[in-house]
Fold:
Amino acid sequence: MNTLKLFPFLFVLISGAWIEPLFAQSGDLLIYGGKIVNGSATEAYEADILIEADSIVFIGEINKDSVHAGKVIDASGKIITPGFIDMHAHGDPLATPEFQNFLAMGVTTILLGQDGSSVTDGSYQEWFKEVTQAQPGINIAALSGHGSLRGRAELGEDVEVFERDIETMRKQLSQDIDAGSFGLSLGLEYVPGLYAGREELIGLAKTVGARDGLIVSHVRSEDDARIEASLDELATLGKYARVQVSHLKVVYGKGEDRAQQILDLLHDYRSDNIQISADTYPYAASFTGIGIVFPEYAKTEAGWQQAMQENPELLREFLISKVQQRNGPGAILFGTGKYAGMTLEEAAEMENKAPVDLLLEMGPRGASAAHFVMNEALQDRIAIAGQVMISSDGSPTMRHPRGYGSFAKIIRKYVMEEERLTIEDAIHKMSGLPAQTLGLTDRGYLKKGYKADILVFDPANVQDLADFEDPHQLAKGFDWVIVNGKVAKQDSSFSEDRFGMVLKSN
Structure:
């Protein structure tokens, strides 16, 4: 006798999860036959999902012959997961709203406004309206950039700020968060963030904390000799608000033991009731402006021009030393400008110049580049750490494979090839954990009532194809990508329509 037919509301235990059978209901999309990896790091289990409009209305055992659905996806032999949330991304949803690079690697939500740079003209309220009208292909969340706050307050790049200036920025930040910003981003290694002092940062942190926002920071320095001090500075802000380390890395550091020291330090902060999180991308090369190799006094346009006039030899000596410290001119791969796709060494040879002369000619804002300055073993250990989320720090246009491959690489390398992560833990680091950190209450997990940002795929088929020679190759293997209940991607085909929306903090 089939007890399920006699008792249609009976719950049965399957693979450690209570499953409710469903026999008669309608919906817009039915996903059946797959294994649920729900974003919480708990063990996967077999179940079906019914979606109506943009939300999940049922998860359990579904008699597909009795349920009427507008579209049916057979997920047999595949897993069903939440869409991934990229906690550190770049791009312009008004210029390139498709964001196919993110969709192809399973990302359905990105957090913009990073490294201290965000909306510079107008208000966040106006920008959110413009993004909504542009109809992005993925969900867009945003932070308010510290450098942009300075610019909107009409403060110079390297000027001293006073209490009245801090209050002006705090007022603007409050308005941004009230409009829907999720908090504040810092770029403390960049202009103008590197000029920010303790009182300025604490004042802004208090504003973020009062609204339960998040501070996401490119820390003061990622160099091996200065990383602890930089994390201490961020932890100080963590006394006033929740804080997150952007793209956690240790430049010049080596080995898993060094990575573990940094992870232990983050654990110690948490033990002291500092709410600190971190994200990372799975590559041993960064991507940033060439100004990273210039001294602090020559990072601005004016500072560079002054140094070239007053003491060019001192600047020359610094650059020679800094480039060698960063593994030489062959370890700097230009991603923008005239020499995109060439290393500094190759560009200098083409111009028949010394690498330092080319840099002096270009100046600190002459180009952006990939910098091969990280140790793979160290970064691998960070990538698999339980409390570290995955991000791309990439965009549709950046010449770095991280913008096209990061999330796929986590599955391909750490889950399937090296088996250093379970699929449940990997999915948690890319969905549930970032949703919890950002404060999203209806995304990041597969739960009844949650928004239907969903992936269907076989982990064995996932491939990150982008590399440094061809960084714009789309990832493969994510068979179905569903955004707000609509199919945005099926196999290698993208929908002509776009289904993303602006996500707000309130």
